Amino acid sequence: MRLYSKLLVVVIAVIFNATSCATKKPVVPLTPITIKEIATVSKIAVGTNHACALLLNQTVQCWGRNELGQLGNGTTTFSDNPTEVKGLGSVKNIDAKDNYTCALLNDSRVKCWGYDWSNETPKEADSVLPVEVNGLKDVLAVSAGFGSTCAFLSEGQVKCWGNFSEPNRPLKGRSSVPKIVSDLQSATAITQTTSHRCILVPPGKVKCWGNSIFGSLGNGSQKPVKSPSQVEGIDSAISISSGAYTTCVRLTSGQVKCWGRNNYGQLGDGSKADSAIPVLVKGINTATKVAAEGNHSCALLLSGEVACWGENFFGQLGNGTRHDTSTPVMVKGITNAVDIVVGGVGGPKYSCALLSNGQVKCWGGNHFGQLGRKTRHQSSAHPAFVEKINRAKAISAGNGHVCILDSRGQVNCWGRNANGQLGNGTKDDSFSPVIVKGISSATSISVSGIHSCAVLKNSKV
Question: Domain holding 80: CATH number?
Fold first, then answer.
């Protein structure tokens, strides 16, 4: 685990504090806020309306809403200041989702607190203090999800508990006791959409389960399954990326295979026919990264070039046209990319590339100014430089906004800002990058949906 000395956490999102929770009215901070009294954080886990921090001394502190015991401090009182979770002992890792949190202890046991998804009927407070999950030993990792939680065991098994009523759950019904998920061993990566989940299993195989209406499970069938089913013809995958009903994997050979829905040609095989088995993306042999949005995908190539395929209504393929393509096309004018992102889930689709010289180019939909060109509404099929960006070293994209971390530790964002996700003190969309206020020593950033987060390395911010 990567540790940061004297960490502070800055969050740009819809935050609920003790006052606002009492009246059910959200307080939206338009500039980053510093979480008080935390200076030695090693990890942050965020639920729907609460957050927890694992400290270097192996204790956990949480803050936010608490009507279901999300803070684990023995009360149901809201708190906008961190409070220590009671009765944990030494903690190795934490994960949070929805209204609960789980902690992996140093002795490989697991304790959880907050909402209990295994209950048939919600209670006023499910567990206001951490409770040990029975039936687990030698746990290596724990993963919290919406409705269910899974633990990875040292013997290669995976055990899950909670509510398995949704089609992409590997078990049936509800269970407060962890159950073994059959055919799911030694998973090293997972990707999930609203329709299905897939895992990467050494030495390079992939297994999926859930809804397979367009063949999104890759097992040759369009029937939904609740147990992980092996994807056909994949034995050398090293990364997975999913969007909507389509999944793509990058292989050790540098090639890419995709399966599932193909109405825009997003499988890249030269057709628009859905496929329930993986098909090879044509012409891609040196991919170092694949980013899938759902209706279009892009691959970063070893040469520093970028190739994209699929839907192109907004020009998100970057080849100078608005025509969908079922085979990869080269993005124009990019030869030195080091990272790529795609965004616009549920809205105008767009793509961006971080270049080796610290500049950024974007193309595609621009309804909120997410191309960073001082204009809006004018989508573009031609990549162009984002204004004022020349020191970027990391990039992250949400539904309608983009943020970069620069070499000075500053964060710049542009695009949609209805929820204050740009962190500049307003709720106005910005068509060119704006500096996130109060940040000068960020070490990493993460953007998703309509919020942005940055981790800082010292208390001078």
Answer: 2.130.10.30
